[in-house]
Amino acid sequence: MQRLKDWKSRVPLMVEQPRATAGFSRRWVTLAVAAWLLPALYVIQIHLPGNTLTFPGQKAVAPTVNRLAPQGWSFFTKSPRDSELQPYVLHDGVWEGQLLAPHSAPHNAFGLDRRSRSQGIEMALLLAEADGLRWTKCDRELAACLDQAKEPGTVSNPVPEPTLCGLVALVEQKPVPFAWRDLMHATHTPDRLTVLDVTC
Prior knowledge:
By secondary structure, the chain is an alpha+beta fold. Helix content is 32%, strand content 20%.
């Protein structure tokens, strides 16, 4: 037993290696952080909407910052503040919503049915080809606005598989501002609308 203990004590089970370290003073670390943080703060502040904070020389460096470090997601996403078109079709004297979105909804086979993607293009084509397009301002309930809409313009739907035929109302709706989210039940409010007599 003693021999086994002596043998274990003679075997080098662990070899200690000298640690490779590099020393940085706090001053250099602070300067490096400031050198990255200060330009980043200017870039962020210049691209934020107007606020009460203004950095020294912000207006002077803004054109250079916009050229060297442009920011924005508008290429990838649609602004949530933009208005949206929603289609309604008159059936038996009642306006019924015909919007196929959202694209991932079960009635679109969770995205496999692509008709919801083409409906926006269809509405844009109807507006572009409409004869006598007339917009009606809407500052009350949508049903009241639809009842008092101007005479419909006429248009032929050029889409191979149309989703909008007959008397169609295209309603431009604006999202409810975030500050008013608790004061309104809906997420959007109607802004203006146009009625089209669509032949398919």
